[in-house]
Amino acid sequence: xKEIIDIVAAYDEAFKEGKKTALATVVQVEGSAYRRxxxxxxxxxxGQLTGAISGGCLEGDALRxxxxxxxxxxxxxxxxxxxxxxxxxxGVGLGCNGLIHILIEPINDxxxxxxxxxxKIINNRSHAVLVTIFSTADRKAKQxxxxxxxxxxxxxxxxxxxxxxxxDLFNDALSVLENQRSETMYYRDGxxxxxxxxxxxxxxxxxxxxxxxxxxxxxxxxxxxxxxxxVIDGRPSYAEPxxxxxxxxxxxxxxxxxxxxxxxxxxxxxxxMTHNYNYEVALLKExxxxxxxxxxxxxxxxxxxxxxxxxxxxxxxxxDDQLSRIYGPVxxxxxxxxxxxxxxxxxxxxxxxxx
Length: 355
What we know:
Blueprint: H1 2-16, E1 21-31, E2 40-44, E3 49-51, H2 59-72, E4 76-81, E5 98-107, H3 114-124, E6 128-134, E7 145-151, E8 156-158, H4 166-179, E9 183-189, E10 191-200, E11 205-209, H5 215-224, E12 228-233, E13 249-252, E14 268-272, H6 277-287, E15 294-297, H7 301-313, H8 320-324, E16 326-327, H9 338-354
Parallel strand pairs: 11-12, 11-14, 12-13, 14-15, 15-16
Antiparallel strand pairs: 1-2, 1-5, 2-3, 4-5, 6-7, 6-10, 7-8, 9-10
Helix pairs in contact: 1-3, 5-9, 6-7
């Protein structure tokens, strides 16, 4: 998702500046490759690259072909066979052993161009399916490209209604959305077409409760992954945007009002690191009924046990399912020392749990 966010931002900037662009997408891989299907790279006419389709081996050649695509305004399917020992054909040592199919599409100002479909997925903040159609059987045939975007709320954006196999394609997209696993499908329209029916996971939202110094490296590491970050604290002197420039929101709030400031879904993780026992007791009481996927609590196990005991004494019924969503001490046990390593362990644990 971080790559998609960066590509959309780069496209918006290029569009503002009047630059023409193309989108390169890895649509199929046979054997081994540095990037899997779904990897993308935006190329501007002046050679700026955002994202990656390899470890750096293919970008130069893809740039040259993208400029041709921008000029001709027609999608182009390019295949790199890294199984060939003669790497000199590309002028590089690829270090892979696979067949990589990359579709390069010109991005024009159409309402539903491929990058704008990616933008819809980001804004949807939930599961989605993106369909890209191409033909390896006949490279001179029309390459339909990225043409369907299906959201889990049932909304669909498509430029593929006139394809004779559209009904089957739509049903396959629904199946991928339900199973939440990308698939490669095959259809026939005189020649054989391949569709990369890609499941795109939602953006992870991280809500950090506590704006102390130890929250700063946590926002930095999470931002590298492109997570949507919110920092909440009851202390105005701590919850200052200037201290957390990488957070989307920095909020001053009492515990009972904290949830009113954020949108919560199944990809929202909470980390409690306020160093304020009473604040965290009040928050956990609010969190327990919500079936949040991840609630991390900084501090020793005894602290968590004390909080849970106090809640139960106050009449709160805590189920095994609720307990399974609470992680304390927060973070994977990687022998962390210092705020930066603790932050790394927290981000790693959240990623593991949500995956």
